[in-house]
């Protein structure tokens, strides 16, 4: 394992900072997106108007969006039901299983896919294992579900090593 396995390709403030024209310019036609604290706050399953508008923008630009979550099928299904997006549950991130399942299900070209998430330890690491680009976003809320808190502790150590090697990670307003 190398510290490079945790380095995101891009870093943006929030998922809705990803604009369709920028994604298309980068050759991205499919977005795999984490659910909790990336697409929606883990404690607000209904999401926001900004997320709804972002999903509509992606649909209009013919960019596929698939949720990739470690949560149970019923939890993810309930959370995305009113968004009209498909999902892979029990993705087993940091392993590539869920990402590979989505790529195979839809026939995506790995060069045209990006994984968006709020955690270096799961989302970014899984994207590297799957051989696709990644986008790190700031968590939507400062609190985490109990099972994420351990990852955040480990993540702080990895973050420090990344910044020691590459300098401070700056979140952009787009890619």
Placed side by side, the strands forming the largest sheet appear as 1-6-5-2-3-4
**CATH C-level label:** Alpha Beta
N-to-C span:
27 Å
Number of strands: 6
Largest sheet: 6 strands, parallel
What is the residue-averaged pLDDT?
88
Low-confidence stretches: none
Number of domains: 1
Count of helices? 6
Keywords: Hydrolase
Pfam family, one: Hydrolase
Protein name: HAD family hydrolase
GO molecular function, one term: phosphatidylglycerophosphatase activity
Q: What do these coordinates show?
A:
The chain is an alpha/beta fold and 175 residues long. It has a single domain (3-166), classed as 3-Layer(aba) Sandwich (Rossmann fold). Helices cover 39% and strands 14% of the residues. The protein is built from six helices and six strands; from the N terminus they run E-H-E-H-E-H-E-H-E-H-E-H. The protein has a six-stranded parallel sheet, sandwiched between helices. Helix 5 (120-130) links the parallel strand 5 (113-117) and strand 6 (133-137). The chain is globular and about 40 Å long. The two termini are 27 Å apart. The model has no long low-confidence stretch (mean pLDDT 88).
Reconstruct the topology from this structure:
Blueprint: E1 10-12, H1 20-25, E2 30-33, H2 49-60, E3 64-68, H3 73-80, E4 86-88, H4 97-106, E5 113-117, H5 120-130, E6 133-137, H6 146-166
Parallel strand pairs: 1-6, 2-3, 2-5, 3-4, 5-6
